[in-house]
Amino acid sequence: RRRTRAENLARRIQAERKLNDDYIAERNKPPPF
To answer: Which range of residues forms the domain containing residue 6?
Structure first.
C-alpha cells in the first residue's frame, strides 16, 4: 500500500525535526577546553 501525502509529510517533518534536534544539541554543547 502506498503512503498518502499526509503520511509522507508527517514522515518528512519527523526526519527534519530529528536533524534539527541533532544540530541544536551540537550547538548547545559548551565549547571544549
So the answer is: 1-33
- What is the Cα–Cα distance from 23 to 5, expressed in whole angstroms? 27
Total domains, the chain: 1
pTM: 0.54
Binned at pLDDT 50, 70 and 90, residue 7 comes out as very high
**Beta carbons of 3 and 11 less than 8 angstroms apart:** yes
Torsion 20-25-31-33 (CA) sign: negative
